[in-house]
């Protein structure tokens, strides 16, 4: 038979486990308390009986049997918990507050015989009771037998009441513990039910479902917040995938249509003898290469976002910056731009050098592409005061409006002033993916401003954590320029 879900919850099981441990521990403590108390009571009783025996035997030795008899009569009349019995050589009673010795006749033992026994008497209501007692039978020098004992029934009754109270407290704790476990388990079941409902809704395709915040600050709230964050990322990723698919279809429609038109025109020209098939195939190959480049860039971005930077290695970013400056300086000069570089030494980082090289190439290429002839491009590589490594490219081209700077980092986004330039709108999105895969970020700021009819320009900074902090997504730092 399957138990209700409430009893199968982990909190309820843990409650039962802790209760079982408590009962075991409490039982052990109770047993120890009982045994220790009983042992202490017996030891005190034995000490009292020994004291009485020593006093009475001293009376017998110094003053004789009659004095001992009188001492016993006096003690009996005073009352108390002590039991006295004086017997002659034939074990007949001489005096005492009990009629017969509770000990069976036996051989005479020097120092007396100690025994625990049950004392039978009646209470005020006439009920027969058997009470615990302890005593010693001591032989006297004249052959008489002296018995001295103590009734410890009151102590035994106290221990019984104590044990009963402890067992009652344990039962109360068990009841309260089980009730508390059920209450906690029900609360957890409600909270987990909310989580399960959200998971079920997401499985059904509802990416808008979210876990409500209970404002308790416990681990279930943290789990709910983490699940909501994950769903936010998932929803954003799905929206990005849909947007990317739409953008790919939109951006590839024109080149595919153009390719088909050119191939159709080339076929007509080839049939009419006005051109050769080789030229037509060359045009088709150029268009195909552009399409493949777009697809490869999209795949590279997806790879970085899914698994981070592959094969990270420690290297000096200054060497990479020098290579990029040497590679793009001729391209800047060919366009009539002033291309300069400022590179610090000893910029150790951990990452994938080919991906970082591609990201820097995209940033520098964009600066050269969109800066008009006669403009300037500055490439820097330095260590920030926070310890982060920064690559920055500053130009005095038309720049990017402040409201569009976040948008241009997304895939397939091209501003109006760039529609006439070749490209797919994937350059800066690849740079962003590379930065995030290395635990860094991309910052876009205004360039040097408007001067002599040019500007305001754009400053693109790729900020990465230094070695030993690389691949840590929590890396931050000051945004000093």
TrEMBL record:
* InterPro entries from the UniProt entry: HAMP_dom (IPR003660), HATPase_C_sf (IPR036890), HATPase_dom (IPR003594), His_kinase_dom (IPR005467), HisK_dim/P_dom (IPR003661), HisK_dim/P_sf (IPR036097), Sig_transdc_His_kin-like_C (IPR004358), TCS_sensor_his_kinase (IPR050428)
EC number(s) for this protein? 2.7.13.3
Which segments constitute the HAMP domain?
186-239
- Bilayer-crossing residues are 165-184
**Name of one Pfam family that matches:** HAMP
From the Swiss-Prot or TrEMBL record, give the protein name: histidine kinase
From the broadest rank down, the organism's phylogenetic lineage runs: Bacteria, Pseudomonadati, Pseudomonadota, Alphaproteobacteria, Caulobacterales
What are this entry's molecular-function GO terms? kinase activity
Q: Keyword annotations for this protein?
A: Kinase, Membrane, Phosphoprotein, Transferase, Transmembrane, Transmembrane helix, Two-component regulatory system
Indicate where this protein resides in the cell: Membrane
Keyword Cytoplasm in annotation: no
What reaction does this catalyse?
ATP + protein L-histidine = ADP + protein N-phospho-L-histidine
| PROSITE patterns attached to this UniProt entry | HAMP, HIS_KIN
Residue stretches making up the Histidine kinase domain: 247-468
Principal subcellular localisation of the protein: membrane
Transferase keyword on record: yes
What domain of life does the UniProt record list for this protein's source? Answer: Bacteria
């Amino acid at each position: 038979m399957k138990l209700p879900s409430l009893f199968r919850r982990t909190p309820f099981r843990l409650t039962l486990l802790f209760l079982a441990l408590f009962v075991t521990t409490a039982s052990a403590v109770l047993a120890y308390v009982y045994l220790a108390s009983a042992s202490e009571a017996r030891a005190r009783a034995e000490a009292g009986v020994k004291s009485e025996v020593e006093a009475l035997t001293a009376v017998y030795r110094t003053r004789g049997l009659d004095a001992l008899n009188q001492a016993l009569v006096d003690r009996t009349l005073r009352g108390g918990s002590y039991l006295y019995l004086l017997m002659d050589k034939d074990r007949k009673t001489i005096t005492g507050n009990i009629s017969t010795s509770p000990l069976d006749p036996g051989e005479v033992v020097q120092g007396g015989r100690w025994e625990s026994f049950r004392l039978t008497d009646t209470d005020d209501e006439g009920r027969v009771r058997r009470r615990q007692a302890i005593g010693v039978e001591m032989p006297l020098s004249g052959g008489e037998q002296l018995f001295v004992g103590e009734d410890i029934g009151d102590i035994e009754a106290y221990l019984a009441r104590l044990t009963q109270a402890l067992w009652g407290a344990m039962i109360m704790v068990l009841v309260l513990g089980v009730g508390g476990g059920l209450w906690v388990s029900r609360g957890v079941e409600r909270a987990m039910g909310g989580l399960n409902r959200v998971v079920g809704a997401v499985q059904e395709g509802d990416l808008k479902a979210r876990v409500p915040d209970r404002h308790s600050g416990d681990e279930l709230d943290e789990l709910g917040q983490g699940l909501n964050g994950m769903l936010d990322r998932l929803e954003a990723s799905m929206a990005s995938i849909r947007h990317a698919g739409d953008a790919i279809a939109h951006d590839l429609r024109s080149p595919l249509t153009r390719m088909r038109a050119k191939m159709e025109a080339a076929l007509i020209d080839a049939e009419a003898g006005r051109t050769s098939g080789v030229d037509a195939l060359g045009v088709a190959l150029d268009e195909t290469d552009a399409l493949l480049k777009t697809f490869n860039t999209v795949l590279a971005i997806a790879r970085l976002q899914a698994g981070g930077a592959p094969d990270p290695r420690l290297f000096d970013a200054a060497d990479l910056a020098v290579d990029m400056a040497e590679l793009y300086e001729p391209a800047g000069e060919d366009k009539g731009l002033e291309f300069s570089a400022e590179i610090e030494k000893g910029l150790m980082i951990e990452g994938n050098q080919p991906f970082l090289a591609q990201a820097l190439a995209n940033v520098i290429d964009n600066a050269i592409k969109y800066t008009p002839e006669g403009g300037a491009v500055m490439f820097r590589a330095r260590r920030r005061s926070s310890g982060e490594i920064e690559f920055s490219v500053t130009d005095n081209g038309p720049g990017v409006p402040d409201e569009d700077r976040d948008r241009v980092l997304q895939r397939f986004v091209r501003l109006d002033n760039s529609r006439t330039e070749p490209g797919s709108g994937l350059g800066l999105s690849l740079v962003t993916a590379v930065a995030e895969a290395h635990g860094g970020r991309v910052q876009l700021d205004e360039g040097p401003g408007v001067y002599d009819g040019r500007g305001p320009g754009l400053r693109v900074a790729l900020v990465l954590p230094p070695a030993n902090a690389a691949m840590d997504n929590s890396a931050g730092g000051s945004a000093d320029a």
